Amino acid sequence: MATRRFRASEPELDLLYGSFAERSLQPLWELSGLLTPEPRVQGLPHRWPGRELRELGSRAGDLVPVDRGGDRRVLACCNPGLGGAPYAVSTLWAAVQYLRGHEVAPAHRHTPAALRFVVEGEGVWTLVDGDPLHMGAGDLVLTPSWTFHEHHNPGDRPMIWMDVLDLPVVAALDAVFFEEGPSEEADTRTAPRSASEGWYAGAPGLVPVDGPALPAHRSPLLAYRWADTDRALGALLRTTGAGHAALRYTDPVRGGDVLPTMRCEITRTCAGAATGLQRQTGGRVLCVLHGTGTVRIGDERFPAEPGDILAVPSWSPWSVEAGEQMDVFSTSDAPVLEALGLMRTQDLSAAGAAARTGAGR
Amino acid sequence: MATRRFRASEPELDLLYGSFAERSLQPLWELSGLLTPEPRVQGLPHRWPGRELRELGSRAGDLVPVDRGGDRRVLACCNPGLGGAPYAVSTLWAAVQYLRGHEVAPAHRHTPAALRFVVEGEGVWTLVDGDPLHMGAGDLVLTPSWTFHEHHNPGDRPMIWMDVLDLPVVAALDAVFFEEGPSEEADTRTAPRSASEGWYAGAPGLVPVDGPALPAHRSPLLAYRWADTDRALGALLRTTGAGHAALRYTDPVRGGDVLPTMRCEITRTCAGAATGLQRQTGGRVLCVLHGTGTVRIGDERFPAEPGDILAVPSWSPWSVEAGEQMDVFSTSDAPVLEALGLMRTQDLSAAGAAARTGAGR
Amino acid sequence: MATRRFRASEPELDLLYGSFAERSLQPLWELSGLLTPEPRVQGLPHRWPGRELRELGSRAGDLVPVDRGGDRRVLACCNPGLGGAPYAVSTLWAAVQYLRGHEVAPAHRHTPAALRFVVEGEGVWTLVDGDPLHMGAGDLVLTPSWTFHEHHNPGDRPMIWMDVLDLPVVAALDAVFFEEGPSEEADTRTAPRSASEGWYAGAPGLVPVDGPALPAHRSPLLAYRWADTDRALGALLRTTGAGHAALRYTDPVRGGDVLPTMRCEITRTCAGAATGLQRQTGGRVLCVLHGTGTVRIGDERFPAEPGDILAVPSWSPWSVEAGEQMDVFSTSDAPVLEALGLMRTQDLSAAGAAARTGAGR
Amino acid sequence: MATRRFRASEPELDLLYGSFAERSLQPLWELSGLLTPEPRVQGLPHRWPGRELRELGSRAGDLVPVDRGGDRRVLACCNPGLGGAPYAVSTLWAAVQYLRGHEVAPAHRHTPAALRFVVEGEGVWTLVDGDPLHMGAGDLVLTPSWTFHEHHNPGDRPMIWMDVLDLPVVAALDAVFFEEGPSEEADTRTAPRSASEGWYAGAPGLVPVDGPALPAHRSPLLAYRWADTDRALGALLRTTGAGHAALRYTDPVRGGDVLPTMRCEITRTCAGAATGLQRQTGGRVLCVLHGTGTVRIGDERFPAEPGDILAVPSWSPWSVEAGEQMDVFSTSDAPVLEALGLMRTQDLSAAGAAARTGAGR
């Protein structure tokens, strides 16, 4: 920016600036960094190794109880670029939650929506507004905004899983509400199948004619089972004939994302293959379910193993390069960016580069 | 209507009416039956027994060849109330189609959309814009508006199935277009799984991230398999805890009906149970897949067996009473009525009667 | 179509055909004309001269009373190609209605929707669910499906206007309901401005924050005034810089057509200019408001004057060639065709021909 | 919250916490304030008096030039509760912009969307993607996301107006892009009417049949004129019969808010009347156009005059009490809250209190 030649002497300016400050005003011309050619992203590419998350979860399980109070035994992934904020990227909370055998986490609800993704183990039940959802490896379980949810582990073995919340977005909008459940005790019900799945997980494209009233703003299906996901990934991979295939988790009745704030996807990459390098506005959290390989984010290349959580900041190019076949789960804030007309994507692969004409949009 | 006292003598009126006729005008006050308190439906409740349809289909197979010319070996169900029009109800064409072993019906396309529902047998392949879809008992196969479609039967055994088309609606709108396929010969491809299913039949709520561009106005999934439908009906029945359960076939990506003109549903009714008596505007065609019982339509009660096709005219109450467990497939024009703001439904069961306050809407 | 060589002797075939007839079946291969390369439209291009409509309306006013009974003093335009059906095109009823001074037409409602377009005169009030709407030249007034409506003419002078209804469509769907109003007498209220306009005709893009609940399936605004339309046509013509400009009447709150079954548009064509020749599926009724010129429909060229009603059958090319500046109002069934995925348009002007590659879609 | 009894000694815990910190993890049970019963809003109710804004704008005009560099002569309203951030509420930037006679502010574009609202004066032209929009008192002018915009003041008199931007939201989503226009010079075109208005400001509910392709995510109409707004407010006030009336600025073609991130409304309150006390999630900025009175926000009561800008933080009750008749313009982030399923409203007036059952949702 060229030097500005003021029409005023410094004392005059000082006086004016003093008046601004007194009146809670700031001159735009003294501000910088507000409008940048590209997003000035503070979050950094980062990897939280699965092995460490499991080990620290287990140690916390030994030393720290699960108590009443809205809290859970949860370790939040804190992006090193975000100045201590407990967020994996600027718009997403990601964490691991650890529940020992016979522990319970009683019910509460909050406007931030949460999802649970399980990398290994099974046996915990999450009740969503009273509907008992079993959790096992590869399952995605939703606890949408303002639904009561609680967890209980009736077995002897501890269990760990990943939580992702849209908390940073809801907090930035000053819209956080929280309420404890009606009881100090967790509901320890189980059921062969959740009601949600009984109604909505029948078959692709088949929905009940007279089902319950559909909830606004989110999927009525609350659990997506690994057996289904695995089969669908296999079928899709055979259909595309490419080295990778990606599925989006959606509302089975109305289409669209499972939650108004978070998009969930899973990508299978064949051994030796890689996904195309691409970037988009908005943050993303990856979680490796199966396989090992390399995840490239921005200028960094991270080795990846099951249980790893990785942060992909806004506008950072990323891809997955599979050593052995990899399944990688992804959560992004894409529905927010799309709803607000702010989604911008760029394909940086060779194919994309050929097609591009220079502009990112 | 009270007798109208004209201000004019008869000769004056005759002169006026003559002028109207010369100018292609008609006086509203001499017309009757245009605006009736309830729909004046000409179609009648009717049943075409499955046994007769199979037998006559087979005899036609012996005597009549399948030739080039847009025609198929098809017997159209002609509602006795419709004055000879080849329609099952005033808005739907229903028919059986019979294809002998090694026969082919080459490609054509038309703006009326069609669906195929199979009651028994298997082995015919329908290609929709080149995608080979195997047909077997309980399957629903779509050939949407303006898609090329052709059938071939590579095996030795004949096969029969039901066709339903929205032809009366498209014809009433003067919007019928027809085109023969590029070849005199049917394409006899087969495939382990149609591309349509490879992309869209993975699992409930899981859709491809980078799939083909979605077709406007209809489902991208073209086949709904009986194994899936059967499993989904069973799960739904266990969930509802009622004596019957109904599923709607929908677009698995965007939700909504499979076609813009026809709604497809299937109802399973447990032995000894019955669906609620109800009526709605618009026509409906039923096809019994499994089981025997009674189908009540208006004032008639029809015995029902597999393969039966039944006509439910607009605003006629209907229900299914199952002797043994019954699966009944249904096609209606409900998407048309709903899109135009003309859907009106009435629950005539005991439960509905209690809730009703007199008005049908 | 090639001659079909049957495998059967005639007696065998006769026997089979007899069986078909007994069972209410028809063989497709003996039917013809069901699936045609282009729409087989029975309606013909036609013009009902405004002068005759006014004259015959006036004579009916002298000779025929307006009575209770759902009827009005209405002359229906009967397309000569439609075999005596009282429809202007196969999907639209068009008529003139004539009300003498101090006459009233009491309230009724029906599922077919109606619209009124006024070519000349003023002074009649139409009440829609009790909201009094004044009618004057150039105004469009809506009486949507199932709204009570009544007309009264408090002045001394008679008034004539055009009615258009979607009756053929609603009747084809067996969805006609009719109900007389609560009183034998018309409500003769007047008001400086209808409530509908008070809420929704403030200014383009400005809508009430806390207005009444919006009706489903149609515009909450029931009258579109000529002063507004005239000004908007003028502004649009200056903006486009072309010799003609067309406006669509829409729901001012949610966008989209004013009714789910009928699209309303108005075109101003400058003296000596012409609209592009085009065709589309579905029927259309034109009404000349101002100016004289020629309306070309299919192979016919009709001289046109104020008050003329013209029928444009499905898939017939049409254009307006203005001698002096013309304003032509148009109603079509386009929302129906679009909702059902059946709209097909073709630009046959020189510009369109250059762009076309042969196919109409 | 009850005191947590740890199972571990302090050295063990210290060791564990140290491991967390090393691995960029934070234990949820040591965090507080994340999930609060109601939003923990940092922004405060605040008023920036119009008189001061005009005076300081004018002094800045004397002392500070307008230069190339993405900057404008703009004073940002800084909410005293937001720790120095230049935002009026946590989700909205509000500011006054001052342009002296014969000054120009050349073109740039950015993903944050802006709107301009004029309290007094006239004569500046804002070009949006080259379309010249004159600005005068009471006008709302939009410069949507990623549209080039520039201002020029061809007259001798300075002009001041309010800018509101969604910058905090776009920045929180790491989606800020910025680009300077192709020229160092402002385009100084003027026109009798903007093209945007020529196409879309004809009349309520009348839209062009063949207009330009509609922009995604926002209104194609870029200026809402005071003459129209004033007339619409008057008509609405007569229709409601209440002491106040509120209009929303919307997309005249498709309905919905003018921008995907900001809702614009204007309320007229009659002398001596007051709007209902209410609150909702999300932030709001008020700007007084006409009249004097009191604006109540939270526990504060601010005297209000033309030109005042006021901050209404999320979930703060607010109302306008008019001394003389007041017109108050409002911008909120409601479209964001609604799109994400986070809108919660509460009517705190006597009427609302009677209807309420305790819960805010």
List its traits.
18% helix; six-stranded antiparallel sheet; globular; Jelly Rolls; 24 strands; homotetramer; 361 residues; alpha+beta
Could you report the average pLDDT of chain A, rounded to the nearest whole number?
94
Radius of gyration of chain A: 23 Å
Number of helices of chain A: 7
Order of strands in the sheet with most strands of chain A: 2-21-18-23-16-15
CATH third-level topology of chain A:
Jelly Rolls
Question: Can you tell me the number of structural domains of chain A?
Answer: 1
What portion of residues of chain A belong to β-strands? 25-35%
Considering the protein shown, what is the CATH homologous superfamily of chain A?
Jelly Rolls
Q: So what's the CATH class of chain A?
A: Mainly Beta
Q: Level of helix content of chain A?
A: 10-25%
Compute the number of strand runs of chain A: 24
**Shape call of chain A:** globular
Regarding quaternary structure, how should these chains be classified? homotetramer
The CATH architecture of chain A comes to: Sandwich
- Termini distance of chain A? 26 Å
Task: List low-confidence stretches of chain A.
Answer: 357-361
Main sheet characteristics of chain A: 6 strands, antiparallel
Biggest interface between chains = A-D, 97 and 97 residues
Structural class by SSE content of chain A: alpha+beta
Pfam families (chains A, B, C, D): Cupin_2
Organism (chains A, B, C, D): Pseudonocardia broussonetiae
Keywords (chains A, B, C, D): Dioxygenase, Oxidoreductase
Protein name (chains A, B, C, D): Cupin domain-containing protein
